[in-house]
Amino acid sequence: MATTSQDVPAVRHFRNFVIITFLIAFILSLCFYLTGTLVIISIGGSISVIKQYIDLSLLNQFIHLAKTLFAYWKFYIENSSQLSWSSYSYFAAKLWIFTLLPFALLAMIFWTFRAPIMDWRPFKKPESVHGDSRWANSKDVKKMGLRSKNGVLLGSFEKKFMVADGYQHILLFAPTGSGKGVGFVIPNLLFWRDSVIVHDIKLENYELTSGWRRNNLKQKVFLWNPADPDGISHCYNPMDWISKKPGQMVDDVQKICNFLLPEQEFWQNEARALLTGVMLYLVTAPNTVRTLGEVVRTLRSDDVVYNLAVVLDTVGKQIHPVAYMNIASYLQKPDKERGSVTSTANSSLELWANPLIDATTATSDFNLHNFKKTPHTCYVGLTPDNISRLKPLMNMFYQQAAAFFTAKLPQPHEKFGVLMMMDEFPTLGKMEQFLAGIAYFRGYRVRLFLIIQDTEQLKGIYEESGMNSFLSNATYRITFAANNMETANLISQLLGNKTVTQVSYNKPKYLDLNPGARSLHLSETQRALLLPQEVITLPREEQIMLIESQPPIKCKKIFYFKDRFFKKRLLKQINIPKQKPYNPNDRNKQQQENVDPNQASNQANDVTNSSNQNQQSNNDQQENIEYNNQSANKDDINQDIIDNNQFEEQNNSSNN
To answer: Which of 65, 333, 382, 487 could anchor a disulfide with 338, C-beta 3.0 to 4.6 Å?
Structure first.
């Protein structure tokens, strides 16, 4: 005995088509026959005519009916202006009534019994006991709206890009080395026209796409690379955007402290209260440095208890009441408990003891509040060896950005959306802002593009319920070849099952001389649209895309280096300012130099000949131009902060 399986054939569809065609032809023929018979009887009238008509064969009857009806209607059309309804023994009335009567009866019967007729099997989609999953075709792809001109690139289908407009979220399962950068991140940075924040590990995305986004898309482009050993980075200070409104100020500070100390246990609660007090003191007291680095210096001073007591004695009436209350509560604790609270607070700010981190978070070169007003690009750079160390800083930045983007619904002057492209998303740690916000970010024109390696990686951070939340709220779920069986099983289950016909046949083992000894048996059974092992062995150039309420798509990856459309957009990277390590004794604005990152290590070399001196002079002139542009940009940011503060003060005065 042997068995084979094959897809349920399209014979069913052909059978239904043949049945319905013959049925319609029969009904129309019957109506025509009744029409002709009634017209001849009502108009011809004589028994001899009827008898002669009946004596004909069925075929000749149809021919006679056709000729007679044609003659009657030709006579009526030619003389319609002279005929009335009562002329010639109501000829016109009889012709119209008995011509339409059978069709009217047919329509009445259909309307009366429409439910059982439509429930008849040829009109219904064949029931599939074992499943009816299938791959999408070109018609499905077009119906899904994946042929937009602007949006996010999802892949290639039948040699055409699939582009998803709108702000639906995307979740990509892509193991290391599977081509997520060349197939998704870089192509989209060369295609997406609105604002974008991209988690740029290894800085490859900045090197290949920053030139296009600034020079051709005319966007403001920034690279925040806080741990760069040469200080080549723009700056972002989380404390620059704390509100000046007394109530909102506390809320903003508490959010930052919650990002730094997310756990809800005693020592972290007490440390959060201390950090809130110190940060509010720095924000509201005159002549203070408002950075997280200054918070570290305050808490790690020679005698923090004495220094904070002096703060309350000297500027206690000028600082925020919550700052006074929290610092006073800290000072009243027993020495042992106070030491534990201080240690917990200091451990959350360990990064800011690094002069490089301190320098790149001492001021702000870009304003996240403007990302919806004008297109911006921000590359958040780090190297693989710093992923774990910078996790608290990255976690806080992304959550603060998400909070800014969803603080209020888009206003008429905010015409642009924001794409947050998060490579190796689970390595950033648990971010409650994203776990809760993925359900409503879309309404604020915020689109998440989350890239993970497998389900285990996501489940390890957000647990089963969190992973399911990301899966259910991602409209587009894309997978490359899976690297473990659990992810492969999940994808196979999401794809569903299809019904296949299993063919079994028997034949003698040796001499097959008796046809009667052979048998053939057909049965229906189920098969996964793609088995787990097939998900694991998916060809490198292919990917699978699952879309909410739509059949899955098996399509091709995009490789930017193979496509002329993208290769011509690869321009030289932009220059980035160089930050000097923060000096706590220097409270002035940090001096910046504009350097090319590829030449940063060579700038200290002396020039030994006149030709090199001339070239260096030209380079210095270009650097001065770039430096002035960066300075002007910083002035714009500072003006944004001033304008925001003035606006809040006006609101406060008007409310008072």
So the answer is: 333
CB 603, CB 571: distance < 8 Å: no
Question: Structure tokens of 236?
Answer: 């972002």
| Rounded distance between C-alpha atoms, residue 444 and residue 408, angstroms | 8
In the chain, where the domains are located: 10-123, 141-236+364-567, 238-356, 605-655
pLDDT, tens digit, 9 for 90 and up, residues 623-654: 333 433 444 444 454 544 444 444 344 444 43
Q: Which residues, 6 or more positions from 563, have their beta carbon under 8 angstroms from its beta carbon? A: 187
pTM as predicted:
0.73
Q: What is the pLDDT of residues 555-598, one digit of tens each?
A: 999 999 999 999 999 999 999 999 888 776 665 444 344 444 44
Evaluated on CA atoms 457, 259, 261, 361, the torsion sign reads: positive
Distance from CA of residue 204 to its chain's centroid?
22
CA distance linking residue 214 with residue 220, whole number of Å: 6
CB atoms inside a 10 Å sphere around CB 334: 8
The CATH H-level superfamily of 141-236+364-567 is P-loop containing nucleotide triphosphate hydrolases (3.40.50.300)
CA 455/CA 475 separation, integer angstroms: 17
Task: Report the distance separating Cα 27 and Cα 540, nearest Å.
Answer: 56
H or E element in which residue 29 lies: helix 11-39
CA-based torsion, 108, 113, 117, 119: positive or negative:
positive
Report CA dihedral (304, 305, 310, 316) to the nearest 10 degrees. 100
Contact criterion met (CB below 8 Å) for 459 and 502: no
Secondary structure of the chain: what % helix, strand, coil (to 5)? 55, 15, 30
What is the token pair recorded at 428? 């950033």
